[in-house]
Each structure stands twice: as C-alpha cells, then as structure tokens.
Design brief:
heterodimer, A: mainly alpha, B: Peroxisomal Thiolase, Chain A, domain 1, two-stranded antiparallel ribbon, about 35% helix, EC 2.3.1.- (chain B), transferase (chain B), Thiolase-like (chain B), acyltransferase (chain B)
C-alpha cells in the first residue's frame, strides 16, 4: 500500500476541508470533489507549506500519483540545491 | 390593470438571534438586543457588533464549503436551503431553467481580505489565495445558491447598499411579472463584522460609539441614537405567482404586493432632510399594490439609529401617512446587516402578517421630540393588519419600499 504524502494530506484536510477518512491512494482529486479551482488553491497551500510549487497535478491524478509526483519534484530540487 | 403580487411560500433566515426562522422570530419578539463586544474587532475604534451565533457552516454545509466560501455566502446558502424546504419544493425535481435567484449584497466581502492584502504588501504574492476574488465578489451569494439548488434561470446580485435585500425582492417580483421565471429565490446576505468594514464605517462616522454599553447602542428613533451597529445575516424568500403556488397546493405565508424604487439624486451618503425620495418610493409602492395609505396597518421601518436616517424616514412617513401606523425597527435587536437587512426585515414583515403580531423596537425609551411616531416597544403588540410596508434606504440615495399583504 502506498502512503500518501503527509503534507498533501494536511493540505487536503486542514487547507481544503476534506474529511481524512475519504483520502485513499487510489482516489483521484475528481473523486474527492476537487475541481480545477480547488487544485489552484491546493497548489498555493502546498507551496506555502513546503516552498515547492507542485506542477503536473490534474483532476484525474490519484493521490498515489500525486505523492509520487511531489516526491520527484522534491528530489529534483534537492539535486539542484546540491549542484 | 392591477399588477399581480407574488406569493411568499418559503422563508429562510440567519440572524444574530440564531440560525433559522424560529430562532429569529423568537429573538425579534423578545426585544432583546444582540450587540456585544466582538473579539474580531479588538483594538478598533468601534469593537462591538451583532454576531450570528453558532453559524457552524462545517456542520450545516460541509467543511469544504466552510473553507471555500466567505461568511455572507455561507449564510445565504443556509437560508436558501431553509426557504426551499419551507416552501415544500424539491430542487432535484424542479424545472431549474424556470427558477431565478436574486440576492442583495451591499459591499464586496472583506471577511478574509485583510490577510491577503497583507501578503501583497509584504511581497508574498504567491501565497495569495486564488479564491480571494471568487469568495469576495458580491454575486457569489446568488451564484452559489444557483449551483447548490440547480437553479438555472436568471441569477444575479442587486447592490443598492443598505437597500440591496429589498431591491432583490422587488426585482424578483418584476421577473415573475415579466414571466422570466416561475419561481424566484430572493433575499440578501452580508457580514460587515470584519476589520475592514468596521474601520471603514467608523471613519465615515456612521457607527454608534456607545462602546461602554453595546446592547444599548442601536436605538432607532430614540433621542439618544448616535449611529448604527455592525451586523450580519441573511434571509431568503421563495416567491411564486399566486396561480403557480395554488397549482401545487403550496401554503402562502404572505403576498409581496408592491414595490417602489427611487433614488434621491441628492448626496452620496446623506438623505435629503425631508426624505422626499423615500416618500416617493412609498407612494410608488402603494400605487403598485393598488392600495392607499389608509390600507397600511404597520410600518417595518429602515430605522438604522443614525441621526440623519431616522429623521428623514420620519419626515417621509409623515408626508405619506396622515397618521403613520404602528412602526417598528428590527435594527434595535439585530443592528444593521447592510445588504441582508432589507430581506431580513421583509421576512419579519411576512411573519408579522402571518401571526398578526408586531415585534417591538429595542432600546426605544425616549422618542426624539422632533418625531410623532407610534413606535412599538416592550413585548410587541397584537394588532390586526392586512397590509404592511417594509422600508429600506441606502448609500447612493437608493430607496426601496416593499408592500406585503396577508396571504
């Protein structure tokens, strides 16, 4: 079972007001009722918490895919910082 | 030809006495002022208000909507759901294209604007919420009601400052008469219990400064009045052509029979001393309802408790009515909720006609000696009334007068 990014979880519950028990790795943002406007909101909240702008998230991304995408952003920026 | 009225078949209210028609009607009959110190306004020149208790938008709507919507839209949605249920309508089953939504909102929403502007001022532009605009614009009360109720007919905001809610109801009556819809969901919603509104109205000199005793601050038509009290709330009425209401066996709580609208064209914020624009709106509403001054048994006044408004309103009433009928102002109990006030007071006027009971005016202990009005005080007054007036006047010189009759 894939874990969901912890910051993403907090953004969805505290920032967007979704109930925590609905957050499953295979749920898409669309399944959670989040539209393009909500994804814009999510991006600003996530960047505020982490300093990283999440790119590439769509309404059809699952939380597992989003977690993988955010991990790759994080890895990229770590590499950049290291060079 | 007599213009047809609209049946009021559903009412929803959110007021500083509580959420729902029952709590609001009980609160206004109690005559108990709701103004108290407001921690959100701490440190400002005027730091008291009338707050809606236990709004609890998370539970009444969803936590998602509670975070996404500003307070005025939350209150609008809660009132709209109550009104539609009260009317016995099912928004899943109705013909949505024939349902209009008109909501009066007097300002943009400043609930959460201060924090976003602070980010702008400190160069933290990327932290600004993308919802700053959609949650703040005044048409969102009507837009979100349309969305929630699948009401796909005409939907818009009316904005005539403190008269916005009454303008919305009058406009909805015109839409029904014009055949633009079969059902109109109309009212007003506003919260000015925020730091930007509080300081803005304070700098304008419009607010009562009775900070030592907030509960005594809103005193309509009283000799000691010194300004209005910041408030919030929402009210929504379901309006239908009488034949449409009869056709589905709906209960009619009262009839919205007439609407008069004028503009003073005199001054940005002050009424003319003789209240001539308000008087003209009163005469227009009477003519629209095919009634005369003698037919009116009760006035639900605008009665803001500002020195100028109450004086001009008194002049207007005395110009139109040889002896003005028993008059009440709901703002003694609830303060001034700007765009919501006209709708809340129309809802109270409908309940007044239904119950044949005039609610009292709080804090009216000594009438301004310049006035000669029969102000209802104490615990209200049982009184036979077939037709009543609800007055609303706003910055910009806007005057909106509604006439309601028994259902």
């Amino acid at each position: 079972m894939t874990d969901i990014n912890e910051v993403l979880t907090r953004c969805l519950t505290d920032g967007l007001g979704l109930p925590a028990d609905g957050l499953h790795p295979e749920a898409t943002f669309d399944d959670l009722g989040l539209d393009s406007l909500a994804l814009l909101e999510l991006a600003v909240i996530y960047e505020d918490k982490t300093g990283h702008e999440p790119t590439g998230l769509t309404a059809l991304s699952t939380l597992a895919q989003a977690t993988a995408l955010l991990a790759s952003h994080q890895a990229d920026s770590t590499t950049e910082a290291g060079t | 030809m007599t213009a047809e009225g609209a049946a009021i078949t559903g009412i929803g209210m959110v007021t500083p006495s509580g959420v729902g028609v029952q709590a609001s009607w009980a609160g206004i009959l109690s005559g108990k002022p709701t103004a108290e110190v407001d921690d959100e306004l701490a440190g400002l020149p005027v730091a008291f208000s009338c707050r809606v208790p236990d709004l609890d938008a998370c539970a009444r709507l969803t936590s998602r909507l509670a975070l996404r919507l500003d307070r005025f839209t939350q209150m609008a949605l809660i009132a709209a759901h109550e009104a539609v249920a009260d009317a016995g309508l099912n928004s899943e089953a109705w013909h949505g294209e024939r349902v209009a939504v008109v909501m009066g909102v007097g300002t943009a929403s400043f609930d959460r604007l201060e924090a976003e502007v602070m980010k702008l001022a400190s160069d933290q532009v990327r932290k600004i919420s993308p919802l700053m605009i959609p949650r703040s614009i005044p048409n969102m009360a009507s837009g979100e009601i349309s969305l929630a109720l699948k009401a796909r007919g005409p939907s818009f905001a009316t904005s005539t400052a403190c008269a916005s809610g009454a303008t919305a109801l009058g406009t909805a009556l015109l839409l029904l008469r014009a055949g633009a819809c079969d059902i109109a969901i109309a009212g007003g919603a506003e919260s000015v219990r925020n730091r930007i509104s509080a300081v803005g109205f304070s700098q304008l000199g419009a607010l009562s400064t009775r900070s030592g005793s907030p509960a005594a601050a809103s005193r309509p038509f009283d000799t000691g009045r010194d300004g209005f009290v910041l408030s919030e709330g929402a009210a929504v009425l379901v309006l239908e052509r009488p034949a449409h209401a009869r056709g589905r066996g709906a209960r009619t709580r009262a009839i919205l029979s007439g609407y008069g609208a004028t503009c003073d064209a005199h001054h940005p914020t002050a009424p003319p001393v003789d209240g001539r624009g308000a008087a003209a709106a009163l005469r227009m509403a009477l003519a629209d309802a095919s009634l005369t001054a003698d037919d009116i048994g009760h006035i639900n006044a605008h009665g803001t408790s500002t020195p100028l408004n109450d004086a001009a309103e008194c002049q207007a009433l005395q110009a139109v009515f040889p002896q003005p009928p028993p008059t009440t102002s709901n703002k003694g109990v609830w303060g001034h909720s700007i765009g919501a006030a006209g709708a809340i007071e129309a809802a109270v006027t409908a309940l007044t006609l239904e119950h044949q009971l005039l609610p009292p005016t709080a804090n009216h202990t000594q009438q301004d000696p310049a006035f000669d009005l029969d102000i209802v005080t104490g615990s209200g007054r049982h009184h036979q009334v077939r037709a009543a007036v609800s007055n609303s006047f706003g910055f910009g010189g806007h005057n909106a007068v509604l006439i309601l009759t028994v259902g």
